[in-house]
Amino acid sequence: MRRRPQVLTEVREAPAPQERKTATRVLVEHHEVLRGLMRRLMETPRPEPGRRRALADELFDELWMHERIEEEVFYPAMRDVTPGIAAAWSEHRQLSDQLAALVRADPRTERFDRELGVMHDALESHAHLDEERQMFPEIERFADEERLIELGDRLQARLGRLRSSRRVRAVLRLQRALLRRTAR
Amino acid sequence: MGLGSDMAQRTLDRLLNAIEGDGRLDRPGHRLEQGLAFAENLAGVTRSRARGLLHGVWLGHPLHPVLTDLPIGSWTTALVLDLTGQKRAARTAVGVGLAGALGAAVTGLHDWQHTHDNARRVGMAHGTLNTLALALYGWSWWQRGRGHHLRGRLAALLGYPVIMASGFLGGTLVFRHRVGVDQTDRQLDPRHFTPVLAERDLTDNRPHRVRAGDVEVVLVRADGRIHALENACPHLGGPLSQGWLRDGSITCPWHGSEFELRSGESLNGPAVAPAPCFQTRVRDGWIEVRRAPKATSSPPGSALVHQQEVRP
Question: Where is this region: Disordered (chain A) (predicted)?
């Protein structure tokens, strides 16, 4: 039902000059963004809680958007290509749960480091072990290249829209605040 | 079988296939799950003992089907009491059923969020029917309290077939989709110690997938010991070797079930059955595994005790 108006707005905003890439490449590049955030977070020592918190917030937002573009654009389109979609969807749930645990931990404590370690492992399990090593190669073998490029465009456009949306930013800020407020 | 039962079976089959193949249920389903996830994280359920409690880890099988007996039983009782004209007792029975239905709803949603594809869609239909029945019986209870017994009886009469149909879908989830059923294949192999990996190839604190005959095994060296568990999670068969290790346990990457490395015991759900374990030893630089006999209290002379006796 809500598909149509979205597509229309996409056409109106589309002429943004972006390089055309396949969907899998867009996603792998975004995995790299997430990995970079993860690395910076792990390099930031405990005596810098402010920076740790800011980076955790950024990871929360980027990972949330990553899940949304995969779930709204990529996974539904790939259902017939690979049987691994349902499992990948479940893995997102694990990442969301772990993100919640991470932002609820005080960045000055050892608990934060522990949650960060689990976050790292969970992200690698989903992004690398599942998607980059199993699902994406399978998709690149069996899916039509044209279709993957068209999906890549949609993924990039959707990610851009999410990143620049004030409403999304506000919702994410509210989510983080509520999670922190109720932390024990 | 007669023509009638044949047709009934075909109709039910067609109905189930229609639900299972309906992709339109996915979007609202995932929205609902996201809401549930946020609520559970806010309440701190995800990382607390409540998680396993609601899944039924302590029970050894899912808690949800136990609680569904309450509304079905109570509302059947209410139907009989309505027929025999016992108004007050009928209202009490409806009320007890309502309480049970709420418990069943909480545990059911808690289990449903960790299902896949077809089972997920059937679960959506099951939950929708239950919500409808709950609303009808809730209204029935309220009307009876205000003295409108006829309306109350009518609502209950409408709600009863709904809850029966929903019970049928619940049965489908277990017997057709094996939700909540232990998915391990209960093999006995390998019965003898089988070499699976050179010891120097096993890194500390990192899961490693190997094969022992037809069985996939995940090896983990932690705290100076080598642990071996079946690679497929007993919940839905997730690959434990892609999971992560913490505090002597391994977590399934699909739905977050945590298993104790030493015993394979499930710690938090959604897996309610333990992951099967293997005995390990190192011979000539090779790690060898053998199926660990199940702890049992069987009488002497039973097959399992005999299996334990052949230990070298």
Answer: 1-20
Residue ranges per structural domain of chain B: 3-175, 194-309
A71 touches chain B (CB under 8 A): yes
Cα–Cα dist A113/A107, whole Å: 8
ipTM: 0.83
Q: Structure tokens of A123?
A: 């992200």
As given in the structure block, the two tokens for residue B143 are: 């009307």
Candidates B23, B114, B244; nearest CB to A118? B244
Residue A159 included in any domain? yes
Interface of B with A (CB under 8 A): 23, 26, 30, 33-34, 37-38, 40-44, 46-47, 113-114, 116-117, 120, 238, 242-246, 253-256
Query: In Å, what is the CA distance from B125 to each residue of A21, A86, B91, B133?
Result: 39, 18, 28, 12
Per-residue pLDDT of chain B (312 residues; tens, 9 = 90+): 567 788 888 888 888 888 988 888 888 999 999 999 999 999 989 888 999 999 999 998 999 999 999 999 999 999 999 999 898 999 999 999 999 999 999 999 999 999 998 999 999 999 999 999 999 999 999 999 999 989 999 999 999 999 999 999 999 999 999 999 988 877 778 888 899 998 888 888 899 999 988 899 999 998 889 999 999 999 999 999 999 998 899 999 999 999 999 989 999 989 999 999 999 989 999 999 998 776 555 444 444 433 443 443
Helices A3-13 and A145-164 sit at what angle, rounded to 10 degrees? 90
Q: Report the alpha-carbon distance of residue B228 to residue B249 in Å, rounded.
A: 12
Interchain proximity B253–A76, CB inside 8 Å: no
**How many domains, in total, are found in chain A?**
1
What residues have CB less than 8 Å from B295, skipping those under 6 apart?
Answer: none
Domain containing A51: what range? 21-181
Chain A residues whose CB is inside 8 A of the B113 CB are 93
Q: What's this model's pTM, rounded to 2 decimal places?
A: 0.85
The answer as to whether A131 is a domain residue is yes
Superfamily of domain B194-309: Rieske [2Fe-2S] iron-sulphur domain (2.102.10.10)
Tell me phi and psi for residue B202, to 5 degrees: -100, 115
Please indicate, yes or no, if residue A8 is contained in any of the structural domains. no
What is the distance, to the nearest Å, from the Cα of residue B80 to the centroid of all Cα atoms in its chain? 32
Q: How far is CA A57 from the centre of its chain?
A: 13
